[in-house]
Amino acid sequence: MSLPEFQGYQLALARHLRDPRACPVPAGVSRRGVAIYRELLFGNLLGFLDTCFPVTRHLLGAERWRRLARVFFAAHPCRSPLFRHIPEEFARWLDREAAALRLPGWTAHLVHYEWVELALDTSPLDTHVPGVDAGADLLGARPVVNPVSMLLTYPYPVHRIGPDWRPRAPSRESTRILAFRDHGDDVRFIVLNPVSARLVDLLRPGRLTGRGALRRIAAELRHPDPQIVLAGGAAVLADLHRQQAIVGARTTRRRPSVAS
Questions:
Q1: 16 near 26, Cβ under 8 Å?
Q2: Across residues 105-125, what is the average pLDDT?
Q3: Is 165 strand, coil or helix?
Q4: What are 117-172's pLDDT values in tens digits?
Q5: Is the pLDDT of residue 17 over 80?
Q6: Which domain does 180 fall in, by range?
Q7: Rounded distance, CA 15 to CA 38, Å?
Q8: Where are the alpha helices (DSSP H) in 122-225?
Q9: Which tens digits make up the pLDDT trace of 38-67?
Q10: What is the CATH number of the domain that holds 222?
């Protein structure tokens, strides 16, 4: 079944605007007018990408970055009509296509890391959680991880990548980062070791006390002295709380016993 003429025209124009080298200008369209419109649309897209990914743009170089944005514009059908979702669409697309595009192995991971700041900055979630005691015992109660946060794992130390250093290969050990928005609406990043990352992961569902999570870690590690894990973990909990990555804790109430 053929499309109505106006829909065929719209599709042809859209194809040209996205990929002018592969798709000719539809008949009857002003070449001067379509050129202005073409650059306006691509310029808007490029502006959003430039703003969100300044480090990646700098490392790839302006021309290579522009070519990459052109490929994205031509090849990827965005699922959201909102401009603020363009960087997320780009990060998802690049995660799939980076190898085929022969980009440095760290590129997609650095792009994701840069996007996280925008995602947390614009998150509709609130860092203030009702029913949470900011002064509660983090070991005896159930610590509450900042709801505006992401626990991230990368094969490269993305927080160190910049003009003065670029990794040649993935690291032997993954880089774990807790990204979160504090009460002052600043997005912050904390590099974690494997044990502290496991602690945050165990606490995120909100079911374990701090002591319970640390005891589980001690068992997983088969540590000969669980008290060492508890002492070290208590210091980690206090530091995460100080930095607002943990916003407080919920008190665990015992059910009243029934007298016999």
A1: yes
A2: 97
A3: strand
A4: 999 999 999 999 999 999 999 999 999 999 999 999 999 999 999 999 999 999 99
A5: no
A6: 126-253
A7: 11
A8: 194-203, 210-221
A9: 888 899 999 999 999 999 999 999 999 999
A10: 3.90.930.50
5 burial via Cβ count (<10 Å: 0-12, 13-18, 19+): exposed
Question: Cα separation of 74 and 255, whole Å?
Answer: 61
Give a yes or no: residue 89 inside a domain.
no
- DSSP code per residue over 121-149: HT----S--TT-BTTS-TTTSEEEE-SSE
Domain assignment present for 7: no
Residue 104, in any domain of the structure: no
How many percent of the chain have pLDDT more than 70? 95
Q: How many domains does the chain have?
A: 1
* Ramachandran area for residue 196 (φ above 0: left; ψ -120 to 50: alpha; else beta): alpha
Q: What is the dihedral of CA 197, 201, 202, 206, to 10 degrees?
A: 130
* Average pLDDT across the chain, whole number: 92
Q: With CA atoms as reference, report the closest residue to 158 among 209, 108, 92.
A: 108
Backbone dihedral angles phi then psi of residue 180, each to the nearest 5 degrees:
-160, 160
